[in-house]
Every structure is written in structure tokens, then in C-alpha cells.
Amino acid sequence: MHSHARITIAGLGPGAPGCITLGTWESLKLSPRVLLRTGIHPVVEWLRQEGISFSTFDYVYEEETDFQKIYQRIAQEVIREADNGQVLYAVPGHPLVAEESVRLVIEMAEKKGVDIELLPAVSFLDALFIALRLDPSAGLQIIDGVRIDQQLPLPGRGAVITQVYSQLVASDIKISLLEIYPPEHPVTVVRGAGIPGEEIIE
Known about the structure:
Blueprint: E1 6-11, H1 22-30, E2 34-36, H2 44-49, E3 55-56, H3 58-63, H4 67-82, E4 86-91, H5 100-112, E5 115-118, H6 124-132, E6 140-144, E7 158-162, H7 167-177, E8 190-191, E9 200-201
Parallel strand pairs: 1-4, 1-5, 2-3, 2-4, 6-7
Antiparallel strand pairs: 8-9
Helix pairs in contact: 4-5
């Protein structure tokens, strides 16, 4: 283990460059090695234009089909990179909101004694609150759409369902929701929350 092994974990916000925090921006400029979970994020092209050098783990998504294996491999690679010194691992949104790879990196780092620094970030939830004029303190459930069969929302309280990344996942969510809501219950679909020109609310 390198004596200076350290991993800084940062979030890139929901997609607009203005949502990147000053702390994350300074870290992106100063870090000797920047690793992005994915280059498929609206802010990545702007980072490139601003001269930030980075590598991505998009190749892992091409080589694996199971998401748990993907996140496991990415976490292992981040830890391996940290063996050679300081790295910054950046993910879309907030590092602690719906980011399985970050959970695994923290778990592995703690076992190996690698220092971890988590930087605050704007999450897609923050953008969603603004898009829908929601006050989460009024009572709001955050449900992982991939695991909705394990954590069905409670009727009568607002619910945000995340990770609806494919038609198959959306179909599974619909079936699960029909168990607790009537078929005519209204649902709001938000795409690209907080991204200028891309936000769609239906």
C-alpha cells in the first residue's frame, strides 16, 4: 500500500456546470489522477473543454452485463489506482445518493486502511425538488426502482423512484406500483432534472 494512498470522492451534480461545487472544482483541477465512473454525463464535455484530464470506466459497462459486477469491478479499480497515490473518483450527482460503486469503494477502502475524503455535492434530488417545487420536509420517500419489490412506497406520502434507466425497469416498477395504487393514480415523470434545455416534466 502506497504511504500516500488517498481517495477523494466527489459528485459532478445533476448535469449543469454551475452545479459543480467550488470544492469539487478545485479538487478536479489539483488532483493528479481523476477517474470518472462514466463519461456519459452532460457536464463531462465541459470538463474536457476546461482542460481537466480524466479517464472513465465506461469500458467496464461494455464488458459486463450485471450491474453488481460492474460496480464491484469499478470499486476494485479505484482501490488499485489508490495504491499508486492520490486519486479523485467522481460520479454523477451526489456520491452518497443512489451510487452503489461509492458504497463499495468506501467499504473496500476501510478494509485496506485507505483514507477517504467525501466532498459535498448537488444531487439529482436537489434538482428534482426545484423542478417539482417539492419540500422534502413535508414527508418524502426515496425508493430505488431496481429494488422496489423490497421497499414498496407507503401510500399517502410522496415518493420519488430512482434508477428508472430502462423500459424493463419501468415496466417492473409499474407492476409493483399497481399493487398499492389504483390504475388511475397520477405519476409525474422527470427527465434531465436541472439540466438546461434537457429538463422534461410529464
